[in-house]
């Protein structure tokens, strides 16, 4: 533990050296208050125990307290040797500093205070370390909870929304759309001839195709839209505030983006396409499944008409 003794009285300095166990403290000695102010301003030098002779030249108690001020609990104990006949010891604690005033003619009175201060500060350091550790654990706990929540909502392979969370959000959007009489559309997408990709290039490449498609599709839709994988090579986009026209524009934008995109592999660039079925909320719809059933029928129509196209289910 670092200690600073500040006095220009060599007799007093000698008495203090004799009284204090030098093996317990890393002691620095100064004989000028300005030098002391510069010394304690350095984070590397800042002592935890300071003994100041009030008769040191240019001594300024307020400046000293200002320099030692802390918002992190008790960080420093200052023993002030005053040229006053004190009946005992005077304590004052403020801003992280415990100031103790002692008659400078009775330096031995400070030994119990030094021993108390050393033990107290050690305990305080340990408490501060434990608080930081607890705070770190709390932050890590929040991070892990957030990670668990996110993983419970996302598809492990592609990172987009999983089936359960996607449909939960879709039901919420449907209720909102019906309540305020707003438009809502869904797109059901399927990668064309995906089994051929797996058969010809292997399942690892097939997984790369799924991840590549999901990433590009997620980047193409609006921030207000919801996009997820519902199984295998099937994906669904839920488009709030989207009419039939807006849904078809979105589906064509996605389809053309995928059509132009290729996936580089060791076996060459794989070109693939998608088919999309679209449906829009109708007054008689009660559940999200009502839209998904029509979108699935539109998707089937897109496939039977040759794939790599978008179809809308007309009621």
Structure description:
The protein has 315 residues and is of the alpha/beta class. It has two domains: 2-130, Rossmann fold (3-Layer(aba) Sandwich), CATH 3.40.50.2300; 163-312, Reverse transcriptase/Diguanylate cyclase domain (Alpha-Beta Plaits, 2-Layer Sandwich), CATH 3.30.70.270. Helices cover 47% and strands 23% of the residues. It has helices at 10-19, 33-40, 61-68, 111-153, 163-180, 194-201, 203-220, 244-260, 288-304; strands at 2-6, 26-30, 49-53, 76-82, 90-94, 97-103, 184-191, 226-231, 234-240, 262-265, 268-271, 274-280, 310-312. Strands 2-1-3-4-6-5 form a six-stranded mixed sheet. A five-stranded mixed sheet has the order 8-9-7-12-13, sandwiched between helices.
Please describe the topology of this protein:
Blueprint: E1 2-6, H1 10-19, E2 26-30, H2 33-40, E3 49-53, H3 61-68, E4 76-82, E5 90-94, E6 97-103, H4 111-153, H5 163-180, E7 184-191, H6 194-201, H7 203-220, E8 226-231, E9 234-240, H8 244-260, E10 262-265, E11 268-271, E12 274-280, H9 288-304, E13 310-312
Parallel strand pairs: 1-2, 1-3, 3-4, 4-6, 12-13
Antiparallel strand pairs: 5-6, 7-9, 7-12, 8-9, 10-11
Helix pairs in contact: 6-7, 7-8
């Amino acid at each position: 533990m670092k200690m600073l003794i500040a006095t220009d009285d060599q007799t007093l300095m000698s008495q203090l050296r004799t009284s204090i166990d030098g093996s317990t403290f890393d002691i620095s000695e100064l004989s000028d208050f300005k030098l002391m102010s510069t010394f304690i301003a350095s984070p590397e030098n800042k002592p935890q125990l300071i003994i100041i002779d009030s008769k040191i030249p240019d001594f300024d108690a307020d400046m000293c307290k200002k320099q030692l001020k802390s918002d992190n609990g008790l960080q420093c104990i200052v023993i002030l040797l005053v040229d006053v006949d004190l009946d005992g010891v005077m304590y004052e604690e403020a801003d992280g500093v415990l100031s103790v005033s002692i008659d400078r003619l009775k330096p031995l009175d400070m030994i119990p205070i030094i021993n108390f201060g050393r033990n107290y500060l050690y305990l305080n350091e340990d408490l501060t370390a434990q608080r930081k550790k607890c705070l770190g654990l709390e932050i890590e706990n929040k991070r892990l909870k957030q990670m668990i929540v996110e993983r419970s909502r996302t598809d492990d392979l592609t990172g987009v929304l999983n089936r359960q969370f996607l449909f939960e959000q879709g039901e919420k959007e449907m209720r909102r759309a019906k309540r305020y009489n707003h438009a809502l559309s869904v797109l059901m997408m399927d990668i064309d001839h995906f089994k051929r990709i797996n058969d010809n290039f292997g399942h690892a490449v097939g997984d790369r195709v799924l991840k590549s498609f999901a990433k590009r599709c997620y980047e193409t839709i609006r921030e207000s839209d919801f996009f997820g994988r519902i199984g295998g090579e099937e994906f669904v986009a839920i488009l709030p505030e989207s009419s039939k026209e807006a849904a078809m524009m979105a589906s064509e934008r996605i389809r053309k983006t995928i059509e132009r995109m290729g996936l580089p592999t060791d076996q060459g660039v794989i070109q693939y396409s998608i088919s999309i079925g679209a449906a829009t909320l109708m007054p008689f719809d009660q559940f999200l499944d009502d839209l998904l059933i029509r979108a699935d029928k539109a998707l089937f129509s897109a496939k039977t008409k040759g794939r790599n196209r978008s179809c809308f289910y007309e009621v």
